[in-house]
Amino acid sequence: MASIRQIKANRANAKRSTGPRTTAGKSRSSQNAVRHGLARSVISDPAEIENFAAAIALGLGHQVTPASAMALARSKLALLRIRSLRQDTLAALLTGPIPVDLKHLRGFERYERAALVQQKRALRLLSLERG
After folding, report:
1. What is the pLDDT of residues 86-99, one digit of tens each?
2. Nearest Cα to 114, choosing from 122, 125, 102?
3. Residue 43 predicted with pLDDT over 70
4. Is 44 helix (H, G, I), strand (E, B) or coil?
5. What is the DSSP string of the chain?
6. What gap in Å lies between CA 87 and CA 35, rounded to an integer?
7. Taking a C-beta distance cutoff of 8 angstroms, is the pair 131, 64 a contact?
8. Coil, strand or helix: which one is 38?
9. Which residue in 58, 106, 50 sits closest to 77, CA to CA?
10. Contact 31/20 with Cβ under 8 angstroms?
């Protein structure tokens, strides 16, 4: 159990750590997770996803549900976007190593793993539909 002194210290710390209070601070902190757009689950052009899903369905040749084709299209486009950003970052490193770019390279791995898991699920769904 916490002592009276610890409780007072916790309350004093809590009053200081409530986040930004000014409008400028709030707007700056609201952009913390938006650096490269990889955390977004939505790809900017829905028509691109639909066209890609239709191409996947045609290419597979057998009956494919629209949902599974869309899932595979989303995962493939996410992988393409991640790999394109990684390539751009590597190209920027050729001009001069910047520690921030190195940090971004490590971050791309996490997003790529997630996109690969989505792709694997979509492919498994397609194989279940087929068999």
Report:
1. 888 888 888 876 77
2. 122
3. no
4. coil
5. ---HHHHHHHHHHHHH-S---SHHHHHHHTTTT-SSSTT-SS-S-HHHHHHHHHHHHHHH-S---HHHHHHHHHHHHHHHHHHHHHHHHHHHHHH---HHHHHHHHHHHHHHHHHHHHHHHHHHHHHHHH-
6. 16
7. no
8. coil
9. 50
10. no
